[in-house]
Amino acid sequence: MQELFSKKYTLIHSLIKPLRGEWGPGLSAEHSFQKEFPTKCYLGRLSLCIYEMLDMYQQFYSSDETRERLRDEFLGLFDSSNDHWHGMCSTSLLMGDKKLEDCEYGLQPNSAICWAETFPDEVKLYSIDPEQEFHIDMLKLMVKRCMWDVLFPGETLPGYKEPTSGDLSLLDYSIMK
Fold first, then answer.
1. Do residues 107 and 16 touch, judged by C-beta distance below 8 A?
2. Residues in CB range of 93: below 8 A, 6 or more apart
């Protein structure tokens, strides 16, 4: 019997909602973000989503006990197989299900934006087709940069090494099939 991502990673599943297209507050260019929020640091096109996630965390999940549970969930997720990551962005949320969410509303477009912003010399912003070129490594990078680094600033994520190249031809797309 397959396990649901939302049951195993309850806190991550809840906190990632602002980074999903249908639920989140959308994208923000730096000039419009700084005009609206002059005291906040710009964190890239996903800044509004990241700050909404951070607000949710501070409002509902910031107790020491919940913080440790969340840390354990992240450590478990980054130490798991790709099946768990597929479950995070599949239509069914069943771990191992490779049928991706609707590209308009899922995690894929925001993962591609995070990838492009991380590797601007290799990837032009909005040039990745999230339906055709999305890869689990993009999702991992987004979760690490937009969630872990924000919720656990300055802490190293054991066992995860960020990619050093954004070249899509270097990714093993066989894991997506």
1. yes
2. 4, 5, 6, 13, 87
Q: How many CB atoms lie within 10 A of CB 125?
A: 13
Nearest to 90 by CA among 136, 59, 128: 136
Q: Where are the alpha helices (DSSP H) in the chain?
A: 5-8, 10-15, 30-36, 47-56, 64-78, 82-88, 108-118, 136-143, 149-151
CA distance 87 to 67: 23
Per-residue model confidence as pLDDT tens digits over 28-80: 999 999 999 999 999 999 999 999 999 999 999 989 999 999 999 999 999 99
Q: pLDDT digit string (tens) for 76-94?
A: 999 999 999 999 999 999 9
Burial annotation 96-117 (CB, 10 A radius, 16+ → b, else e): bbbebbebeebbbbbbbbbbbb
The Cα 33–Cα 51 span in angstroms is 11
pLDDT of residue 77: 98
Q: What is the pTM of this model?
A: 0.96
